[in-house]
Amino acid sequence: MTAKVGAFAEIESEFDAYVGRIGYSTMVTVDSSNRPRTRVLIPIWENVDGTPLGWLATYRTPIKAAHIARNPHVNFSYWDQRNDSVAVDAVAEWIDDLGLADGPANLEVRKHVWDLYRQTSPRGAGYELGRFWRTPDDPQLQILRLEPWRIQVIRGRDLRSRIWQS
Questions:
Q1: Beta strands in the chain (DSSP E)
Q2: 18 and 76 in contact (C-beta within 8 Å)?
Q3: CA angle 12-13-16, nearest 5°?
Q4: Which residues does 154 contact at the CB level (< 8 Å), separation at least 6?
Q5: Among 84, 68, 113, which Cα is nearest to 25's?
Q6: Against a cut of 0.90, is the pTM above it?
Q7: How many CB atoms lie within 10 A of CB 46?
Q8: pLDDT tens digit string along 38-91?
């Protein structure tokens, strides 16, 4: 049974619990022939004025960059052996493409994301970015801003499904 909710707050605690426990998600993009491409990554999420917002610290590989440039709609899928799952449909944008390149606002976003990963957001989701990048302004560190437009949480024990849409 699927129910739509009016506010993210109605599914936030379940979202946070599942994402925090599962950690890894499968990110889906599509190529120029509309074929899906997946990779396993760890995005982080925060609540900004009642609305979810995600961030992904990653490398800007040619394939990922081409897919997002052509079609910025992405999906993140979480699943565990309890059959609990979360699906996040979002629009992705590189922070360097937001008009923040090389400015103080860009560095502030990078520091904010670095800190969210360190503290894990939600609790359990994240890791120490210093394992892969030296500092928040490391040029190899690229950050995707993820603006969800639909999130579905499914409780495994009874397959109760709830959907939030922006």
A1: 2-5, 25-30, 36-41, 44-48, 51-58, 73-79, 85-94, 142-155, 160-165
A2: no
A3: 80
A4: 83, 84, 85, 86, 160, 161
A5: 84
A6: yes
A7: 14
A8: 999 999 999 999 999 999 999 999 999 999 999 999 999 999 999 999 999 999
